[in-house]
Amino acid sequence: MNRFRGGFEAVPRWTIVVAAVGGALVLLPLAAMATRVNWGGFLALVSSESSVAALELSLRTSLAATVLCVLFGVPMALVLARTSFPGQRVVRTVVLLPLVLPPVIGGIALLAAFGRQGLLGHTLEVLGVEIAFSTTAVVIAQTFVALPFLVLSLEGSLRVAGTRYEAVAATLGARPTTVLARITLPLVFPALLSGAVLSFARALGEFGATLTFAGSLQGTTRTLPLEIYLQREMDPDAAVALSLVLVVVSLVVVGLTLRTVPDGQASDRGSGRSFLGLGSRSGGLS
Amino acid sequence: MSGLTPEFGLGLRLEATVAARDFDVSLDLPDGQTVAVLGPNGAGKSTLLSVIAGLLRPDTGRVVVNGDVLVDDGVWVPPHRRGISLLAQDPLLFPHLTALDNVAFGPRSAGHATPAAREIARRWLSEVEGADLAVRRPARLSGGQAQRVAIARALASDPRVLLLDEPLAALDVAVAPTIRRMLRRVLEGRTAVLVTHEVLDALTLADRVIVLNRGRVVEQGATSEVLQRPRHPFTAELAGLNLLTGTPTPDGLVTDEGFRVVGSREAGGTAPTGPAAVGSRDGSRDGVRHGVRDGVLVGARLGARLGAAVRPSAIEVHEHRPESLNVVRVTVRDLEPRGDLIRVRTETLSADVTPGQAAALDVTPGTPLWFAFPATAVAIYPL
Questions:
Q1: Tell me, what's the ipTM?
Q2: A142 lies in which domain range?
Q3: Is residue A7 part of a domain?
C-alpha cells in the first residue's frame, strides 16, 4: 500500500529485485507475443468467420458458466462457511480439486459422468438430452473448472464477515432467506463480484476439459482457446492475433474487478469499522 | 434446580445447561422488569443471552416467554420467531443500509411494506433523538449516534424481551450518560436482560440483579439489596465493599481468616445498608430463616455462615496497633488509584487512604500495617 509513501518500508531491497524478475517472467512472454502480431492484417485475422464464431461462443458460454457458478457456488460457500457436518474437510477438498487438477482429467471425468457411455448417459438419453460434444458440454466443463474460484473467494469472505450481523438480523425477526438476501449477500457482495469475475476469466480460458468433453466443433463447442490452438497449426498469424484479443479481454475483466474491489475485499459501501475485518482495516496505521 | 412455577404468567423463565461451557443457570424474570446480569469475564453472561436469543442451543433446559415455550425437549423456536431482540456493545448496524432502513429492518421483516416500516422507524428514531440521522450510513455515525440508532432498531421490532449486552461499554465516557438516560427511559416497563460490568448500569437501569460466576448464579435479588449485602467476593468488589465471611459469635463473627469482627447495635445507622433493609434476607440455604435486626443477629446458630461488609473508606490505616474493637494485621499487596484516593489492597481487606496518608505511612507492596474499623461500620448478615 502506498500509505507509507516516503516513510518506513518493511521490504528488504533484494526482494524488489527478485520480484522484478518474477514480474518479467509474466510480462516478457506477453510483450514478445505483442511484437509478433501482424498489425497490418490484424483486423482481417480477428474478424474471420471462425474467429468471430469462437469469440462469440466463448463469451456466451463463459457468461452462462459464470451464472451457474453463482447459482451453485453461493449455496456451496454458505454451507461450507456457515455449517459444520462430518466430512466437511473432505467435501471442501473435493470441491476445490478442479483448481489443481489438470483440466484434461476434468474432461475425462465429465465424460465418465455425462457422456453417452457415462454414468448418467443412459438416463439422459431416455430424457432426450445429449450433453457430450454440445454447447451445454462446454458450459458444464467451464463451470466445473471455474466453480472453485467463486466458492473459495466467497467462503473466505463469509468467514471474515462472521455471523454477527446475521444474528442481529435474525433477532429482529428476519427469516433465514431474508437474512441471506438483505444482509449476508450485500455484505459479501465485493467478494461475490470478484469471485464471479475470476470464474468468468477462468471459464474464458478453459481449454483441456472443453476439448476432452465437448470436442471442437466450429460454432458449437470451439471456443476461442480451442480456435487459437487450431489456428496455431494452420495460420500462426491468426493465432497470435486472437491470443492478443483474449489477453485484452482478460485484462479488461481483471482490471474491472480490481477497480470495483480496491483492497481485494473492501467495499466502498462498507462501514469501515467491523465490515469484513481484513479489507477495510488493511490500512492499519493510516 | 428447583422446578419453575407453571408458566401461566408473563415474563421470562429460563433454566438451561450447556455442558461445553459448564453453564447451569435458571432465571425467573417477571414481566416488565429489567434484570442486570453481573459477573467476571467467562462467567457465562454471553452464554445466557445467546440461549435466550436462540443463538445457542442448550443441552438441557427450557425457555418460556409470556407463556410461550421457546425451548424444551423437542421444542426449538428459531431466533427470528422469538420476538427477542439483542442490543450489543458494538451497535452492529448493517453497513449497507441507512440509519432509517436499519431501524425499519425489524418492521419490514415482520411483514410491513417498506413505507409503513419506514414510518415506524421514523417514530423510533425520534424516540432516541435521532430523527436527523435517518439518511446517514452507519459509517457516518459517531459511536453514540450509532448506539442510539441500534437502540431504536432493537425496539422497532417490538420485542417481548430485550437483551442488552454491555450496551454502554464501547462508548465514550462523555456519551455514556446520555445513552444511559435514554436506556432508562426505554427500559421502563419492559422485560429486559442487561449484561453489564458497571455497577452504575445495574443501579440505574435494573430492578433486579443476578451475579454469575463460572456458569452458576451465585447471587440474586433486588439490585439495592444484592449490592449492599454481597455474598460473593466479585459482587463485593463491584459494589466497592470489603466482604468478610465466617461463623457467628455473640457479637459478630469469626472470619475464615481467623480474626474476630464485631458489629454493633448501631450497625444499621452507618453501615452500608439502611435499617429497613436489614433482616430481609432469607438465609434459606441451611433451612433456618435468620437475619439481623438493629445489628443483633436473630436466629443465627452455630455453624451458620455470616457475611460482614465494610466500606474501604471506613477503614483506618495505622503503622502501630491502634485501640479499636476491630483490628486486623495486614500486609499490603498492591496499590491502586481510585479518583483522588488510593486503594490499599491486602490479602483480606482493602482500605482507601488519601495520597498524603499513603506517603506518611510509606505504603508500598509488602508493608505491614494495621487496619481498624468501628463496629458501626460493619454490616453483618447471613449468607
A1: 0.76
A2: 42-281
A3: no
